[in-house]
Amino acid sequence: MQAASRESYAAAAERLDAYARGAEPAAVATTGDEVLSVARLLRDQPRLRRALSDPARSGGDRSGLAGSILSGKIGPDAARLVVDIVSSRWSSSAELLEAIERIGVEALLASADRSGDLGEVEDELFRFGQVVSGDPELASALANPIAPVGQRAELTRSLLEGKAKPVTVRLVEVALAGFGGRSFDGGLTRLVELAAERRDRQVAYVTVAAPLTDAEEERLGGTLSGIYGREVTVKQTVDPAVLGGMSVRVGADLYDGTVLRRLTDTRNALAKR
């Protein structure tokens, strides 16, 4: 986001957090769903999206337009959040859409936080991503852009309902719809990171040939927390192809100490001689 949009988003996030602190978790989740429904509307209606972000119109004019469209269609809490967002300055219509979608997601995460389930939701999102990546047929079915989102969402519900938190199921559906313009697996990864951020944590993606023990995972998390100055959550992927050692990715930082990487580097060095 550009500077003006970042300032507007920060203000919207503060309003959401103030609302979530005083509301019941179920109400916050409903508000999140309703805000996401507005994001879907704006994604499908580019002319409306441009009108609601037009800098030539006053904030009051834009918020009045949004209020008239949303009146009676979503709850008052969701409507207030969206109207406040629309009244702010946005650098582009795409950044307005991004902000509304992100606020909807953050409301779902806030509801899980209020219920004490946020850590579990974070883990469930990651584990489901692992299940999908380990099943090529399922991965192809969920990533198929030709299949309607509703059909793919029904498939994920059949896999997750009764086995995962309702917020997890809903967030998987958000990823299926292309959260933030990302692929399904990219959307899931971003949602895991947003859940961690709400808990003031950073995510370390660790690839190993064999699972780390609890003690090893705890030591690694402690070491990374010391490096990054905040608590780090370790997410393991087991891949026998790496042979040994481990690869660790934290944000844009990659530490690849796998045997496979060392063998590849050696092979490349020999090929240059």
Briefly summarize what is shown.
The protein is an alpha+beta fold. The protein has helices at 3-21, 25-44, 46-53, 59-70, 76-87, 93-115, 118-133, 136-143, 149-160, 166-176, 184-198, 214-228, 259-271, and strands at residues 201-208, 231-238, 246-250, 253-256.
- Count, helices: 13
Q: How are helices and strands ordered from N to C?
A: HHHHHHHHHHHEHEEEH
Helix percentage range: 55-70%
Overall mean pLDDT score? 89
- Low-pLDDT stretches are none
Characterize the main sheet.
4 strands, mixed
Count of discrete structural domains = 3
* Order of strands in the sheet with most strands: 2-1-3-4
Distance between the termini: 47 Å
Which class best fits the helix and strand makeup? Answer: alpha+beta
Strand content: 5-15%
Given the C-alpha coordinates, what overall shape results? globular
Global Rg: 21 Å
**Total E-strand runs:** 4
Subcellular location: Cell membrane; Membrane
Protein name: ATP synthase subunit delta
InterPro entries: ATP_synth_OSCP/delta_N_sf (IPR026015), ATPase_OSCP/dsu (IPR000711)
Membrane topology: Peripheral membrane protein
Structure overview:
It is a single chain. This protein is an alpha+beta fold and 273 residues long. The protein folds into three domains: 1-115; 117-199; 201-271, no CATH class. 67% of the residues lie in helices and 9% in strands. It has 13 helices and four strands. Strands 2-1-3-4 form a four-stranded mixed β-sheet, sandwiched between helices. The chain is globular. The N and C termini lie far apart (47 Å). Keywords: ATP synthesis, Cell membrane, CF(1), Hydrogen ion transport, Ion transport, Membrane, Transport. It comes from Plantactinospora siamensis. It is found in: Cell membrane; Membrane.
